[in-house]
Write a structure and sequence with these properties.
Length: 775
């Protein structure tokens, strides 16, 4: 048995699917739409065919008319306008949208993005003062500013009109700005979850007086890269944006697609895993101007050069992340002892700490805060990521005084705090999380749309599922469940850290790929049904198309048997997990037989009444009786069994003397009255082609039955021995028993041994509360 890492939450089976008229909706699509709360033809059509006419009017965004009027006034007066952006992919895209819009209107404008390392996130007083000194009296923020109370006050004092466009969580107090364009600060605007690029796009629409379709390719990058919910307006904008990005003529976007190896239609995954991380990498390692210039340039050669530099920075970013993740993991105390992981070290690159935090969350199922210590300033700066059950933003706001700067969302945040506040941060958040969550809340949950069989899976099914795209937050790609016996399982990757298996049934072959699942290879036994949950897709490589399921999790419900019989070297530690009980069985235990703390030795003579259920049982030595092992198995009722038997001297493989063999030797004794085994052994061996051990065994059986006496190698018949059958000899029975044990436990096939062990425990039930998380 192998327990899943996550809790699998299966969607309720819909027995009353709506009787929609739409012929385009197959039963599967109807079921998946129903899971998304869609119950009518009209709703289905709006979801499957997003239309720009479904967008909400920009006039419902508070302050947008006032802001647009101020910008037009500034343009008419040839006033210098500064776009103040952010250094992530959403901020860079927002900056490009706003700057392009202003230039289109003939504005005298420029942009400014703070340096992550010297200025940190958001507007800064020094930057505003520098802008004022350079003649700027109008500043428009994009994807930032909603928490900038002090900076807004500075702008007002200087005589700068500050227009804030943002989508981050508003805090208790709003900045005193000229105008704030923010969905969550607009009571009349129905959709609250636009990305920063979405808000900038809406403002661009207001400024231009028409829908800025030519900026959809910028918009979709920010929307998908920032992980906002892809529903309602975001779904519409992303759908059209992906089409625009696929056909874009903008040199910078063509160049970034090229270095990512993206050809043809651009998907949300292309942005999420390729374009977005590369644009983010620039601001993570230096100032983000290079990313903005890539998006703005009209020269293809320049765009290609910048894109190559961006690619190089991304590769460097990947190396830095790997190094910090390794260091951070070494600093994490056992996850069970803490609710929120907080790690800090001097010298860590502040630009990648959010990625590091995400890695820690995935590994430990705990919120993680990763901080870089800046001793010369007496502060720490960093990023945090959370688990779904814990609202990081609202909880951190309860201890706002701990931070010098703080902002973000429920699942992600950035922060600055004094060095002295580290312990307070850790203890306060730990208290909060333990008060709010149960141990089960720390376990990840995965929504499973449907169980499917191998014959049901085909390319048409995968294409149908794509109708629900673009996938993302609030509209996840459907996860399906398959249970079957894999025909092949192997580790792949340079470090053998990935797992590939192949399922075959009714001439249908489907690959299963589990990235990062390589460590589970040793925990999968042959011929065992494996349940996997994951996303169905088509893998195209060298012109070949293959169906595959990209696994998110896996489990095995059956008891497992691992066969190590005959191996000279057996590494028990490969199969020992720290949080489960293990028992290893030998005939006798020597002083030098050391084991980990959670593995204990047991002999076949141990009082089994003192033993309890264990997770894993290692059988090193054969028992002297099959019944002894049967009782032990019933008492321990192991979830998994490893048979590690080795034989130096096999009884079963030696020919057992027949009754005619015994008769011949007895007749020889009767004829000679006695045999000197020291002198005549070779003669008998030659005459009958018997081994020395065979002859000695038969002589000992005769002795055991009282037929002969043996002294100093001289075998003599006893006078008038009691007539007995050979089977009455304990030595004879012992050898038969030993041969039977070897035949049953050592020389049996894998299927025969598994059947015998299952028969021993067929009336036992494995208690669910004892199971271990196996991933």
């Amino acid at each position: 048995m192998l327990e899943s890492k996550m809790k699998w939450k299966f969607a309720k089976k819909q027995n009353d699917l709506p009787n929609w008229n739409s012929s385009r909706c197959s039963p599967l699509i109807k079921e998946l739409l129903r899971q998304r709360g869609i119950t009518s033809d009209e709703e289905a059509e709006m979801f499957l065919s997003p239309n720009l006419s479904q967008l909400y009017s920009v006039k419902y965004l508070s302050d947008i008319d006032k802001a647009a009027e101020r910008v037009h006034k500034g343009i008419a007066a040839n006033e210098k306008i500064l776009v103040y952006g952010d250094y992530d992919a959403d901020g860079v895209s927002s900056t490009a949208i706003m700057l392009k819009t202003l230039r289109e209107l003939g504005a005298h404008c420029d942009y400014y993005i703070p340096n992550r390392f010297t200025e940190g996130y958001g507007p800064h007083e020094e930057a505003f003062r520098a802008a004022y000194d350079n003649g700027y009296h109008l500043i428009i923020t994009v994807d930032t500013g909603i928490a900038s109370i002090h900076e807004a006050a500075v702008a007002k004092q200087l005589g700068i009109d500050l227009i804030i466009t943002d989508h981050h969580e508003p805090q208790e107090q709003l900045p005193d700005a000229y105008a704030i364009i923010h969905p969550k600060c607009s009571p009349n605007y129905r959709f609250k979850e636009l990305a920063g690029a979405g808000v900038a796009f809406k403002f661009a629409e207001s400024l231009l007086g028409s829908f800025p379709e030519h900026y959809l390719d910028y918009l979709v990058i920010g929307t998908i890269a920032d992980l906002v919910p892809l529903v309602d307006e975001n779904r519409i904008l992303a759908s059209y944006g992906l089409k625009a990005l696929s056909a874009t003529k903008k040199p910078g976007l063509k160049a970034i697609k090229n270095v990512c190896g993206i050809k043809g239609y651009v998907t949300e995954e292309d942005i999420g895993f390729s374009i977005g991380p590369r644009l983010n990498a620039v601001g993570r390692l230096q100032d983000a101007d290079m990313a903005v210039e890539l998006l703005l340039t009209d020269d293809q050669d320049e765009a290609d050069q910048i894109a190559e530099m961006v690619q190089s920075l991304n590769q460097e970013r990947q190396k830095i992340v790997s190094a910090i993740v390794k260091e951070a993991e070494e600093m994490v105390v056992p996850a069970a002892e803490q609710g929120v992981i907080v790690v800090a070290k001097e010298g860590w690159n502040q630009g990648v700490l959010g990625i590091v935090a995400s890695n820690l969350v995935r590994k430990y199922d705990r919120p993680a805060i990763v901080l870089s210590i800046i001793p010369e300033e007496g502060i720490m700066k960093g990023s945090a990521r959370s688990i779904p059950a814990f609202d990081l933003f609202s909880n951190c706001m309860k201890i706002r005084d701990v931070f010098t700067h703080f902002g973000g969302h429920a699942q992600a945040a950035g922060m600055t705090l004094p060095l002295d506040n580290l312990q307070t941060l850790q203890s306060e958040l730990n208290d909060m999380i333990h008060q709010q969550l149960t141990p089960e809340d720390f376990t990840q949950e995965i929504e499973v749309a449907k169980t499917v069989t191998l014959p049901e899976i085909n390319e048409e099914l995968v294409e149908e599922i794509r109708e629900l795209a673009p996938f993302g937050m609030a509209n996840p790609k459907p996860v399906f469940h398959i249970k079957d016996v894999p025909a092949e399982v192997r580790q792949i990757g340079s470090n053998r850290n990935h797992l590939k298996m192949q399922f075959r049934q009714q001439n249908k072959t489907i690959d299963g790929i589990g990235f990062g699942f390589g460590g589970l290879y040793d925990h999968l036994s042959p011929k065992t049904p494996i349940s996997v949950v994951g996303e169905l897709n088509i893998n195209e490589w060298n012109g070949f198309r293959k169906l595959q399921i990209v696994m998110h999790d896996m489990k095995i419900d059956e008891r497992q048997l691992f066969d190590h019989r005959g191996k000279k070297q057996f590494d028990l530690m490969r199969f020992v997990t720290s949080h489960t009980d293990h028992v290893a069985v030998k005939q006798t235990v020597q002083d030098g037989d050391s084991l980990p703390d959670n593995v204990r030795w047991v002999t076949y003579d141990t009082d089994i009444g003192s033993l309890k259920h264990v997770h894993t049982l290692f059988l090193y030595d054969l028992p002297t009786k099959l019944e002894t092992l049967q009782l032990l198995l019933q008492q321990l009722n192991p979830v998994n069994i490893h048979v590690c038997f080795r034989l130096e001297d096999s009884t079963f493989m030696k020919t057992f003397p027949s009754r005619d063999d015994f008769k011949w030797l007895y007749a020889l004794l009767a004829k000679r009255k006695q045999i000197d085994i020291n002198k005549e052994l070779a003669m008998i061996m030659d005459a009958k082609a018997w081994t020395k051990d065979r002859i000695k065994f038969m002589a000992n059986v005769f002795f055991d039955l009282g037929f002969v006496k043996i002294e100093n190698g001289l075998i003599q018949l006893n006078a008038n021995p009691v007539k007995k059958d050979l089977s009455e000899s304990a030595i004879y029975q012992e050898r038969l028993n030993k041969a039977e044990i070897e035949k049953t436990l050592y020389y049996s096939s894998y299927d025969e041994l598994r059947s015998w062990l299952s028969e021993c425990m067929k009336d036992r039930h494995m208690p669910k509360e004892e199971l271990v998380y196996g991933l």
